[in-house]
Write a structure and sequence with these properties.
The protein is built from no helices and eleven strands. The chain is mainly β. Strand 4 and strand 5 (about 45-50) form a beta hairpin.
Length: about 120
């Protein structure tokens, strides 16, 4: 059984920083793309940033230059460094990963439980 566990959300003032972490655990054979999405109540979940196993990145236009995604393949962990946060970044942030479990032929997509990020003075 594969699980994604997120940490690092919270309340921060505009202009501040937060760092989110997401660790995948379980019987993992290989981890492919990992990333972050966010969703406000009543809205669709949207991409924030993704990173391939080889390091290729993709960012939403709204976060380019402010957020940085990184990962540690040895630890099956992905991070999101969020700087110069704005009130409109307030959302629930979800970790996402494509993982092939041990003994499985095909990879599956997994989601974390979500962590709240609130940017407010």
């Amino acid at each position: 059984q594969v699980q994604l566990v997120e940490s690092g959300g919270g309340l921060v003032q505009p202009g501040g920083s937060l760092r989110l972490s997401c660790a995948a655990s379980g019987n993992i054979a290989n981890t492919y793309a990992m990333g972050w999405y966010r969703q406000a109540s009543g809205k669709q979940r949207e991409l924030v940033a993704t990173m391939s196993r080889g390091g290729d990145t993709n960012y939403a236009d709204s976060v380019k230059g402010r957020f940085t995604i990184s990962r540690d393949n040895a630890k099956n962990t992905v991070y999101l460094q969020m700087d110069r946060l704005k009130p409109e970044d307030t959302d629930v942030y979800y970790c996402n990963a494509v993982i092939r479990g041990a003994g499985s032929i095909l990879p599956l997509q997994y989601w974390g439980q979500g962590t709240q990020v609130t940017v407010s003075s």
